[in-house]
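Table S2 (text version). Query chain:
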Amino acid sequence: MSSVFGSDRYPAYSVIRTDKVGNPISLGDTLPESQAILFTGPPGMGKTSELYRAEDLAATNGWSTIRINASANAPLEHQLTIAIRSSIDELRKRFSRRAVRKLDNTVGQLTRSGGNKRLGVELRFGGGPFPMEYVGKMERDTTAYSELGTTLTDFADELGKLTGDNGRPILLLVDGIDQALENDQAGLNELAIHIEQMDLPVWLVAAGGARSTWSLMNASRRMSGIATTISNQFDVRELGPLPDDQVWKALTLPLQDARIAYEYDAIERLVASANGDPSRLRSLSQAAVAYQDQQAGITLSSVQAAIAHVNAAAAETYQDHWNQKSTTHAQKDLLVLVASQGPNSVYMPAVTQAAGPGKWQEIDQARQQLVARGMLREHGGGVVTIPDEGFRDWINDYVGQTPEPVPELTNPPAVSRGDVALAPVHPTSDRELVNQVFGISGQLVHEVKRTDAQGRPISLEDRGPTGTSLLFTGAPGTGTSHELARTKAMADAEGWIAIQLDASRREGLEARFIRAVQGEMDAIKQQYPAGQVRELKQLLNRMAVRTANLMKTNQLRFGLAPGPKVGIHRSTVEGVKKDSVGTTLNEVAEHLGKMAHPRRTPILVMVDNLDAASKEDLYVLTSLSAHLKEVRHPMFLIAAGGEEATSRLLEASGGHAGTETKEAGKFDVRRLQPIHTDELRQALTVPLDKARVKYEPEAIDNLVAAANGNPTRLRTLAAAALELTDQGQGITADVAATATARLNAQSRALYDAAWYNCSPNEKELLAKTSVQGSNGMVIPSRSEPPGPGRWDLDEASHKLISRGLLTRTGYYIRVADPGFQDWVQTRLGFAAAQSGIARPQVVAGQVESDSPATRPALGQGGPRREDLQANRQF
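Corresponding structure-token output:
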């Protein structure tokens, strides 16, 4: 605690974080449309402070908060249980006791695996006057289908019901999510999606380091890749360095309130040393007060002493960071290189290109990891610096090198610090207006009749299945889930039963199926006889315990009745892996088919997000597909997944043998391709015309080109354009260009995450492809010379296509997202594609910084002519 500057929890001057265009990053009295928010950034940038601000905001407005800290050794469910129980009294004051009691019961079951009810028999021999008695017991689990336990989505539902009485928001605050178990990060992804779908006043507000976005994307296992730039689960809000004017106020206003004098040059030196880092600013400001002159106050000499004290105190921490196992040799080499330039910057494309083929990826990864750790800071144009001057000086002293002097510039440019935190990825415009124009389904109102490569209709409503199993596949954002939504709408219109579920890595497919049937039980009761429904429930009960425990106990008791007895016993648990009880999904599906057969009204089982399913779950689906074809009942399996869904199903069909079978071939596979430009243009203009929104043809062309065949991205771009639209002029070309540029800039954290999760071969192929612009390149199997590298790149192309980073047309591949293409070009120093088609990226000749000392040293002035030919090295 500082009497002048306050504490971390309650600082004397609180900075309201905003993006480059002035939009607030911090939460305000009006909560954002997106109900899942993620604050992320390097260490010390104030992520936890944003959660504190959210707590204070809630207290001021009478909202409820539930706060937990993610942990590497305590599952998320345990943390929630503890948090709810500690907040139970406060919740009872604000909400009905009955609703809170139900929430408490739901949370209590989060840490249990179902009800675990048991039924058993006991046999006794002996006893009475006889001094020995034998007791034999046999018990087995009899957990009912309705007692599988609760999930995180059940917890979110109860939170939503809690707010139903008064509509006051509840904020679920989760800190340190990058420290969580990967399984918990996957759970947070699912929770974020569910909260968005609930449309109830529940907000998930999370915070974590710069690696949070990488790990959340990896943990989702949705093969989503770059598609998360426009359909991500979280509203990602990056916290970067503070602007110098805010740092100046944070220093001077508390000093003025405390009536401590200061020199202008002294404050300027503190601002430069803090370099926008809130954590370092606090250390420096407190030291400056401690070292102040008793008469003159904060002077330049006292500030120099304070800075020296802070740097010396941090020396041990610097050494600890250096000694960590996570600080690889490549990271140390890069830190030494950047430190050697002193306050100057290093142009990274020149460094990676000089490393040559096969080696530049390691340097690039070291750069990315150091930026995430806060040891390096990236500026516009691909240049980096060491933001902590104390750490920079420590490195130079540790390796015994003298840094380069600061170059003297006769006319230094007027610059300001770049890379200030960006706006949310989700559109901040009025959602009601966007939904009014484009509909509420997450897709464009004007439905496009999708066709496959042979010109046949894709949608089930336009072309019936060839069998009893159908699979929609395609890259993220191309509309596979939307095809399930269209199928569900058709089923509802026809009065069919449609059982919907999402595959999940956190819960097996059979448990998900049971929950989905339970959700449709009321509709099933209305359409089918009571006897068949009762038999269905019995089958579900047996299915719920098909891998339950069977426990046998043998016990001997010694002693005369009615006195005390001493017993010894032996218990064995069987059946954990042995399917000795219950039914399978095939048997339940067959019964559903028999129910549907007399009326000839189909029952649909719809499974989305196959990419999250385990190999065991995929085997269950291939087995179910084969069984449905064999029994020939009006029971259909409709699934959706990414580009790799078919190959994963094929691999899983072989079971433990590992040799694929023909079972996966029983699916009617329908692959969704990017939408043709003409169709995409029509999908945009028809809703705009109906809503009487004006637009320029050039603006539509720009938005369609930026969408690049992806309907979900087009909706996001169009919504961003609506936000900027003047009602008199409509969507102009300038508005479309601005909306595209803002979306690409706001997607930077997700581009960075997708890049980090790529393998070295995938990065090499992205480098090769991005430099060719919109023309793309021939697939590796045709363009690469014979050898192992050819097939490494060929495999990389399939992975990148499945994650939506690349798209393929015939024998050509290209970067799917033009914004990501520009990002890769800038990162690797390609000013323009060799084809001359890609939009040129001008790499700034000077680093944006408040200090004139921060200038490019290596590769000064941006990319050189020879750098434009660097794609030959990759």
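Notes on Table S2: Residues 76-94 form the longest helix (19 residues). The chain has a mean pLDDT of 82.
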